[in-house]
Prior knowledge:
Strand content: over 45%
Order of helices and strands: EEEEEEEEEEE
Mean pLDDT: 95
Number of helices: 0
Largest sheet: 7 strands, mixed
Structural class: mainly beta
Distance between the termini: 40 Å
Amino acid sequence: xxxxxxxxxxxxxxxxxxxxxCAALGFTLISYSMRWYRQAPGKEREWVATIxxxxxxxxxxxxxxxxxxxxxxxxxxxVYLQMNxxxxxDTAVYYCSSWVGDDYWGQGTQVTVSS
Length: 115
């Protein structure tokens, strides 16, 4: 059974850092592209970052480029989102996602950036 299990959210002050984890269950992560999305209050869900299958090419939304890093640990079958220099505008629920024969999403994890 395919599952994506997220962890790592919380309350953080501006300019600080936070890292999300997304553990892939039921499939081998390196064989599929993985994406992070976020949804801020009152806004539509937006794409944040992608790491491609196999070679692991990464792409980022302009709003997070240079601050966020998507990566994966193949041995742990886990994808990460390292978020640095956080801003209040980064406050959102973050989701990991992958197409594994169907569209799968993590449960979502809240990040609140506030002083």
